[in-house]
Design goal:
The chain is of the alpha+beta class. It has 3 helices and 6 strands. The protein has one domain: Nuclear Transport Factor 2, Chain: A (Roll), CATH 3.10.450. It has a 6-stranded mixed sheet with strand order 2-1-6-5-4-3. It comes from Devosia oryziradicis.
């Protein structure tokens, strides 16, 4: 599998909350870097264990009914793949001015680094559309 195919398969698995498929593509030393954004204002770095816990919470469907990644540019840059995408999450609960059934939307840039065919690092630059109460 090429680096781009690996990243596309990973994103598809995350999109459908397929834990087994997603985590099969991750290196044991995986680190997920989330830059500061409206959902996680201070940003943070998660290891594989924290990622798995967050993934399982998301898969419970208590916040999102479904999510979609609409991929734009996907660029192979050696041991890195750069992805521009639009993310849409169908809400189950109110978030700011958004109500259940509305979509929370973010414009993303993901920089994914691979080692030995597995994803070892992901840096997300998530720009959420305004959802704050008026």
């Amino acid at each position: 599998m090429t680096s781009i195919e690996t990243v596309r398969a990973y994103i598809a698995a995350v999109e459908t909350f397929d834990e087994a498929a997603a985590f099969a593509l991750l290196h044991p030393q995986m680190r997920f870097h989330e830059l500061p954004n409206r959902i996680r204002p201070k940003g943070g770095v998660d290891d594989l264990e924290a990622m798995r816990a967050g993934f399982r919470r998301a898969a419970e469907g208590t916040v999102l009914r479904a999510q979609r990644y609409i991929l734009g540019e996907v660029i192979d840059a050696g041991d890195r793949v750069v992805v521009e995408a639009r993310w849409e999450g169908d809400l189950v609960v109110p978030v700011g001015k958004l109500q259940p059934g509305d979509q929370l939307v973010a414009h993303l840039c993901m920089v994914v680094r691979l080692e030995g065919g597995l994803i070892i690092e992901q840096r997300n630059y998530d720009c959420y559309e305004d959802f704050t109460a008026a």
